[in-house]
Design goal:
This protein is mostly helical and about 160 residues long. The protein has a domain at about 5-90 and about 125-145: Orthogonal Bundle (Arc Repressor Mutant, subunit A), CATH 1.10.10.10. It contains 6 helices and 2 strands. It has a two-stranded antiparallel sheet. Helix 2 crosses helix 3 and helix 4 (about 75-80) packs across helix 5. This is Rrf2 family transcriptional regulator.
Length: about 160
């Protein structure tokens, strides 16, 4: 099963948007993520619906942040993406009447629920600004300079 990278990708985009002057078009974001602008619009719609970004249609339109990165947690973005499944593993449903399968599934379900609760708690404790500050530290350590504005590169 392929990993769902939408959370990671949207966090990446939101940090670029914060550091980018002006609007970010769906085409520019799509080029940066190596995907289709329709996918970007569909994914960003959830963020817009929750009030994290704004969109303007037409010439000169695009996406802008509606909130500061300090005011958006990783959990906020996760939920705006529709609470995608956290685990690729899941219960077996081959033999639902089998007591062994039922016991296995019950134990796995309890473990996954506990792990998911810990993960969601951690996502709620971190803001996107925390990630941006980590980027700034890494950039400064590598270059000796301040990161400043970023260019939203395609490809």
């Amino acid at each position: 099963m392929r990993a769902d990278s939408r959370l990671s990708r949207m966090l990446h985009v939101l940090i670029h948007m914060d550091r980018h002057d002006g609007v970010a078009t769906s085409e520019t974001i799509a080029g940066m993520l190596n995907t289709n602008p329709v996918v970007v619009r569909r994914t960003m719609a959830g963020l817009r619906d929750q009030g994290y970004v704004r969109s303007e249609k037409g010439h000169g339109g695009g996406w802008t942040l509606a909130r500061r990165l300090d005011d958006i947690t990783l959990l906020d973005v996760y939920r705006a993406l529709g609470d995608p499944p956290v685990f690729a593993i899941g219960p077996s449903v081959d033999q639902p009447d089998c007591l062994v399968e039922q016991a296995v599934n019950a134990t796995l379900a309890q473990a996954m629920q506990a792990a998911e609760a810990v993960l969601l708690d951690r996502l709620g404790q971190a803001s996107i600004a925390d990630i941006a500050r980590d980027f700034d530290r890494r950039f400064s350590a590598l270059t000796g300079a301040t990161a400043g504005r970023l260019v939203m590169e395609q490809g």
